[in-house]
Design brief:
The protein is an alpha/beta fold. It has seven helices and 16 strands.
Length: 274
């Protein structure tokens, strides 16, 4: 019996982060030899944002040093799970990860990568992070056509980023997925919160005010699509000291012995974590 043609999007790749399920179409070319997308970085260089991964691992190490085993990290906007897998492998025996991803097929790859790399101290949740708990309607890209899927903005706004293919925010073409705010989860401990959720970072932080006040985790928050001033003001109100590092804010609470500083070496700026 003949089988119908079935184009392949997701493939298994051996990367510096372990074996990873990757969408081979996950890219938007930004020049002749530079692409944007987690998949493009992995398939072209075997790694995804190694400096950002290193910052997160350093923060986790310091939290363990100062607060002991049982470290808990949340990966908000986990994509296919590079951070999740790196953190979980690094913290085997002394920490755990909860990863959130709102795009259904990307979530499947995330869950598969957790299982494939035997990260039994990681959990994946199919949900978006926001200010409230309920549902959110999100657009549905075509995963068989090239696009930077991690750049997809769940909410329509003026000037949505071009991900490499047209994106429709028409109501009839949206899918409904769970929306979660961290305060409603009543987390018992939190050491690191990463938010890379394409413009919804301020909403997620507002929905985590009680959690941040209670646990005072270190923060790694992407700000290129958000109101950076509003995020900085909110964090300052909560007692955080923030530093802009590339596309992210790295912040620790003023009471946290895990302190972050920037050192300038001419045109180069290095982050130190102590």
């Amino acid at each position: 019996m003949a089988h119908p043609d079935r184009p392949i999007a997701f493939v298994l790749a051996s990367t510096n982060h372990g074996s990873m399920i990757v969408n081979r179409h996950d890219y938007r070319m930004d020049g002749a030899d530079r692409g944007i997308g987690v998949g493009w970085q992995l398939l072209s260089h075997s790694s995804f944002d190694p400096k950002e991964v290193a910052i997160a691992l350093a923060l986790l190490d310091k939290r363990r040093k100062y607060f002991g085993n049982g470290v808990v990290a949340i990966d908000g906007g986990a994509n296919i799970g590079v951070h999740t897998v790196e953190w979980a492998r690094h913290m085997a025996g002394w920490g755990s990860v909860v990863a959130f991803e709102a795009q259904e097929f990307v979530f499947y790859a995330l869950a598969g990568n957790i299982a494939l790399n035997n990260c039994l101290n990681a959990r994946a949740r199919f949900a978006a992070l926001g200010e409230t708990t309920g549902d959110i309607a999100i657009p549905q890209p075509n995963y068989l056509q090239p696009a930077s899927f991690g750049s997809l903005e769940l909410r329509a706004r003026e000037g949505n980023e071009d991900i490499g293919q047209p994106v429709s925010y028409a109501a009839e073409k949206m899918a409904t997925v769970p929306l979660v705010n961290l305060d409603a989860m009543n987390i018992g401990r939190l050491d690191l919160l990463k938010l890379d959720i394409e413009g919804m970072e301020i909403e997620a932080l507002r929905g985590a005010r009680e959690t941040l006040q209670r646990h005072k985790p270190a923060l790694l928050v992407e700000v290129i699509k958000s109101d950076e001033a509003a995020i900085g003001e909110l964090l300052a109100q909560l007692g955080y000291r923030s530093h802009r590092v590339g596309m992210n804010i790295v912040a620790t609470h003023e009471s946290d012995p895990t302190q972050v500083a920037l050192k300038h070496h001419g045109k180069r700026v290095d982050l130190t974590i102590g």
